[in-house]
Amino acid sequence: MRTNKDLWTAAGFGVLAGMRSMTAPAFLTRELSRKPPRALKRALPGLTSKKVSQRLGLLALGELVGDKSPKTPARTVFPVLTGRILSGAITGAAVSRNRKGAKLGFALVGAAAAIASSYFFVGFRRLLTQRLRVPNVAAGLVEDGLALALGSRLTKALR
């Protein structure tokens, strides 16, 4: 059933947004700009644009680099978490392709998954750096690898 698959994909993009807020929309727009569904083109036209896809890719790359800086704020502080929630909601809503436009339920799933993922990966990073004594840069690279693998897998689910 396509709706269940879409629901899990929305949750997956929310998890990805909790890991890296710009990576989720970058992967989504990259895939959607190749062959955008007609309903989504009308509902969220920016997500199907090649220019938007390229710009989000650059922002995602910047986020991957910036994440390693000790001056980067924690992902669970209010403004940063809010960005992750919005990223999860937008990408979650966009995967409801079988329906006429984006749906609120998918947006809520994406947002909730982004919140849970943000807190989970704070703990994961803390485990790596404090308990296992992995340097912060290496721990960030591990998380980057997980985010890129998840993003790649999620875009295949959109096809």
Automatic annotation (TrEMBL):
Organism placement in taxonomy: Bacteria, Pseudomonadati, Myxococcota, Myxococcia, Myxococcales
Top-rank taxon: Bacteria
Keywords assigned by UniProt, alphabetized: Membrane, Transmembrane, Transmembrane helix
Organism listed in the record: Corallococcus macrosporus
Name of the protein described by the UniProt record: DUF4126 domain-containing protein
Transmembrane segments: 104-124
